[in-house]
Specification:
With about 775 residues, this protein is mainly β. The chain has a domain at about 60-270: Sandwich (Immunoglobulin-like). The protein contains four helices and 46 strands. It has a 24-stranded antiparallel barrel. β42 (about 705-715) and β43 (about 720-730) form a beta hairpin. It is globular, with a radius of gyration of 27 Å.
């Protein structure tokens, strides 16, 4: 099928004079902003740093990469104590280098890490010595705790590049109480997937000298090439001492980078020939559920019993097939309520495990914020060709899935992702089939080029339903160490309507400078049926310049002043939006931060829209706004964040307040309250748009936990409640008891209610 009426991104299309004129205009505006900001930067003494090469430490990644040799051992019992005789025969890793707070200095606390193996498992033993064990910070026992929470704990982290491709990794993090977080890194950490879970046995003990960890990872849980006689893997190790805000690495990294930067990892040698297992796991589930409520779809009412399974098979060491039948996502926590004060749709992140696993393979679109890359002011929340929430959800309501298949991995030098999912007919709407093909090839070491194809097909009775198809190509280049280039082009056809989108971004990010510019075009009728596009019918230019000034021997670790400008026109080069912003970020040694922004905005409204029932009429609006945000360290018993912003708002005024407070009195206990309040004056009306939420988590152990999540949306007068108990009764095998409810607060009663009991069991062959 032809996807476009004219050749996609043909030369005359790329070379349109008006785009070049707009680009020159964007650069001119950026230069003006940068010129205006330079006196302030000079007064602060910021520009002195890059003048003298001697004042900038050498890039830590340029130091020699370390190596360690593992040895065959036997008789290890995983109990958190390194008392077996075999541990004494191994040579430990002991040299760790700080990434922060004093980059390049040795770690202040000693660390020993040992590697051994046998025919079934890889064994890791570690002693994390600590001069004040009573001050160690552990905030969660649950598996796969949120990343922002896990970063606020003492931890040992491991990254394994099992194919030694210097790009992809398996990730494991353990805290002093044995809490585990595992996942995968792709493309040097450009995307991460913490939906992946390995078959891991880990135990820890705390003592007067610090803490000790023992871990085993079954070979069947990892992917590698068993035909290689002597295995060598990429490896890096992280040690975090949170009270000191100290992060150290075995293979040294700059503070702007993270452990998943496998192109700068060390090497684990001596693994010999590893066993090739059947690489087959089966995870069946069974559930019983009861649904009720005034607005609940008829298909979901009443009691039901269901069963299904997920199957994972390693076709080759590099290629994994996942099959799912009657997939159920009842254990997923409810979406966080959001306030929308714009005329554009909101993005809700994926939370379902099946779609989170290997999600990095299918990523395509605006680059999200990734450690170490230039500021972009964009993310997948703005543009992506594949957003898996389009599958199995309609307006937030689950749609039953018959089943599906996913093939991910590598064939030669090519990274491959294939996905096909079939949904059922639901609530009077036809069944649909969703297909994705993603291919990506590494080039120039740390760069890649790729293509993607998506197809959304109505498979209703008679086969006469509509279809939506999208094709795209992209490249992500890292040149000269610090030069980043991201570009994509895409075309969609929805029924008989087709259109295109494209973006080019170039940036430079080193230890001091953060500079970037981009241009983007999205057609009026561009409609990726399996993606998300926040704004269509636009041409956009963006530019930014900022610096990261690091301070030694100071509570203030880094301050980051920047300016940025964004111009958005319609497709006829008529200005629709302009945003010019100056900001300052301050990072402190206790992991707290303060951010200030001042923004000058222009918005041309050509189609009226409403905010909480109040109309914003057609017209031109020019207004300014400022904000300040403070976030404290989550490592403390009491922590939180506070943000205040305000200024003009489409001919009126807006004052917004958001804040959160967290109480974590001990490992496994977290209570959190979140408030978002927006007071607006618009069109002569005064009103507020508010959301409140509370979350309580209690982990009895690493295998038994309870959670409660309650949200109140004052605008819709609805309260959402989500209660969950989870027992891990065997490795990667769960028993869930769940209660979810959506209730109208203004006499609406129960709108939706589910009570579900679900059990899963992982079988390894």
């Amino acid at each position: 099928m032809i996807l476009a009426r004219r050749p996609f991104l043909c030369p005359d299309y790329i070379a349109r004079v008006d785009i070049l004129i707009r680009l020159c205009f964007f650069r001119l505006q950026c230069s003006r902003l940068a010129s205006a900001a330079l006196p302030t930067l000079l007064a602060a003494g910021l520009c002195a740093s890059p003048v003298s090469a001697q004042s900038i430490p050498s890039e830590l990644e340029s130091l020699p990469r370390p190596e360690i040799t593992a040895k065959r051992i036997s008789g290890i019992q995983i109990d958190g104590r390194l008392d077996e005789a075999d541990w004494a025969t191994l040579t430990p890793i002991t040299d760790f280098v700080q990434a922060q707070p004093n980059d390049g200095a040795p770690g202040t606390e000693n660390t020993e890490v040992f590697f051994g193996y046998d025919d079934e498992k890889l064994y890791i033993g570690a002693n994390m010595y600590d001069s004040d064990p009573s001050a160690m910070i552990t905030k969660s026992l649950e598996r796969d705790a949120p990343g922002i929470l896990f970063e606020e704990m003492d931890a040992l982290g491991l990254a394994f590049d099992t194919f030694l491709d210097r790009r992809n990794s398996f990730l494991f993090f353990v805290n002093p109480m044995g809490g585990l977080k595992d996942g995968q890194g792709f493309d040097d950490g450009r995307s991460r997937d913490y939906g992946w879970n390995g078959v891991v046995d880990v135990r820890t003990t705390q003592h007067e000298r610090g803490w000790t960890m023992e871990m085993s990872i079954t070979w069947r849980s990892l992917r590698f090439d068993p035909s290689i006689e002597n295995q060598s893997w990429g490896l890096n190790i992280l040690r975090r001492v949170r009270r000191k805000n100290e992060v150290t690495y075995w293979a040294p990294l700059d503070r702007r980078n993270r452990i998943f930067l496998m192109s700068s990892a060390g090497t684990l040698k001596g693994l010999g020939r590893l066993p090739a297992g059947n690489n087959l796991t089966v995870k069946p589930f069974a559930l019983t559920a009861s649904g009720s409520g005034a607005t609940l779809a008829e298909d979901l009412r009443g009691a039901e019993a269901d069963a299904g399974l997920d199957l994972k098979y390693g076709i080759t060491p590099n290629l994994t097939l996942d099959l799912t039948y009657r997939t159920d996502f009842s254990q997923v926590e409810a979406d966080a309520e959001q306030v929308n004060l714009t005329r554009f749709p909101l993005f809700f992140p994926e939370q379902r495990e099946f779609f989170l696993e290997n999600s990095g393979t299918f990523s395509f679109g605006d680059v999200s914020r990734v450690p170490g890359v230039p500021r972009s002011n964009t993310s997948f929340r703005d543009f992506t060709l594949f957003h898996s929430r389009q599958i199995g959800l309609r307006g937030g309501t689950p749609v039953p899935l018959t089943g599906g298949a996913r093939l991910t991995g590598r064939i030669g030098e090519m990274e491959v992702g294939l996905l096909n999912i079939q949904s059922e007919m639901f609530d009077g709407e036809a069944a649909e089939n969703f297909s994705v093909v993603r291919l990506r090839r590494s080039v120039f070491g740390r760069s890649d080029v790729g293509v993607i194809f998506t197809n959304r097909q109505d498979t209703g009775v008679g086969g006469a339903g509509g279809s939506n198809r999208t094709v795209g190509f992209d490249t992500n280049l890292r040149l000269l160490g610090n030069l980043f280039v991201n570009a994509y082009g895409a075309a969609s056809r929805d029924g008989s309507v087709d259109d295109e989108a494209a973006r080019l971004a170039v940036g430079w990010r080193d230890r001091f400078w953060n500079v970037a510019a981009s241009v983007r075009r999205i057609g009026d009728d561009f409609a990726p049926g399996m993606g998300f596009v926040r704004r269509k019918g636009i041409r956009e230019g963006y530019a930014t310049v900022g610096v990261h000034k690091r301070l030694a021997d100071s509570r203030l670790l880094e301050f980051n002043p920047y300016v940025q400008t964004t111009f958005t026109t319609n497709l006829f080069a008529e200005l629709e939006s302009r945003e010019q912003r100056a900001g300052l970020g301050l990072s402190f040694d206790d992991r707290s931060s303060v951010n200030f922004t001042y923004t000058d905005r222009f918005e041309r409204i050509t189609t009226p829209f409403t905010i909480s029932g109040t109309a914003v009429p057609v017209g031109d609006y020019d207004f300014t706004e400022g904000s300040v945000r403070y976030s404290s360290s989550r490592g403390k018993e009491l922590s939180g964040s506070l943000s205040v912003s305000g200024g003009g708002y489409f001919g009126g005024d807006r004052v917004s307040f958001s804040g959160s407070a967290r109480w974590q009195p001990g490992p496994g206990v977290t209570a959190e309250v979140v408030v978002a309040r927006n007071n607006l004056t618009l069109g002569g009306n005064e009103f507020s748009v508010d959301v409140y939420a509370g979350r309580l988590k209690y982990a009895v152990s690493t295998t038994l936990s309870f959670a409660a999540f309650v949200q109140l949306n004052a605008e819709t007068d609805e309260m959402v409640t989500n209660l969950r108990a989870n027992l891990i009764h065997a490795p990667l095998s769960d028993l869930f008891l769940l209660y979810t409810e959506r209730r109208g607060m203004n006499g609406g009663g129960v709108l939706e209610r589910f009570v579900t009991l679900k059990v899963t069991r992982l079988l390894i062959f």
